[in-house]
């Protein structure tokens, strides 16, 4: 006679923190109830190896032939899981230790499952047999016990899949063993949410087969940019991530933090000019960053960067005037020579400009030299510290000019905000 009496079975672990460290990547699928489907299975109290009280299901009808005793779980929702694992703890009596029993005594039991789209099982449906139930395996103990020994607990794990329906039932079939089913844990393996190469990959259940690789798409962490695509990570059948593809990196103004799982803003007074995995650096000389996440430090008042200077370059100022200007005049030309400024303003790319004017000092009158004056090698952008001004005397005699007025300026390659510092050289014209 078959019965279907619902009985609460055992307290299943209720959170991941109570799993052993080796199983932290596992997720319990459900806390379930078993149904006593045959009066031959009994729910009894007992003790585990540490003498802790437990509730178990046991069966021991070894003196009777043709045993076929089933125990079935409640309906277990599948969620999005493709492969399920079942951990069973049980004890089995050694048949040789039981006197006067027929040869039908077993030391094994069978594990089955049945898929369904709803909780529709009854005491008579599905039929208690293989097909419709799908057999997972015949479970044999590593150790059995005799009358004089305490029960030796065996632990076995089996898996099955791929699953496709809304849920399933577990079933345990006894064919004539003397055994106790102590606990059953139903779980699936997953790859937990992780960060790799500054990309976040979501929690991902393993595939339908133990060898399956499931692709998880990734997204860059905040303040990071993709540098190679696509972003993906593979979850293997053991719930472990492997084979990262693609990467992100921290954008300008942000640096790696928290063991390279975050991109944090550069603190005030520091900067990072380019995207990448480098750290923020203190602002260069004569510059500052008053707020965080700076990609460039602004120059302080009176300091500048050339248009060709990088953001990593220090800010510089205008050089002082050229020194020791020496001029000499002959009948046709004026020669200027000078020494470099005492203060270069932090630059190493000093250029000199020479401006020529014709003047009457007593009248306070000056005008720029015209094309009649040739400055060699040129009058702007000089790097050497000597020029010669060739003067066409006939043109000079036409005007009432008595002096040649040369202005020497130092410039740098700085932008238009920079200034020029000049000195003047005035020499009488010789006719």
TrEMBL record:
Entry annotated with the keyword Protease: no
Pfam families: Ephrin_CRD (PF25599), Ephrin_lbd (PF01404)
Principal EC category: transferase
Compartment(s) where it occurs, according to its Swiss-Prot or TrEMBL record: Cell membrane
Domain Eph LBD: 1-196
Enzyme Commission no: 2.7.10.1
A GO biological process held by the record: axon guidance
Keywords attached to this entry: ATP-binding, Cell membrane, Developmental protein, Glycoprotein, Kinase, Membrane, Neurogenesis, Nucleotide-binding, Phosphoprotein, Receptor, Repeat, Signal, Transferase, Transmembrane, Transmembrane helix, Tyrosine-protein kinase
Annotated PANTHER family: EPH RECEPTOR A5, EPHRIN TYPE-B RECEPTOR 3
Name under which the protein is recorded: receptor protein-tyrosine kinase
Organism, scientific name: Amphilophus citrinellus
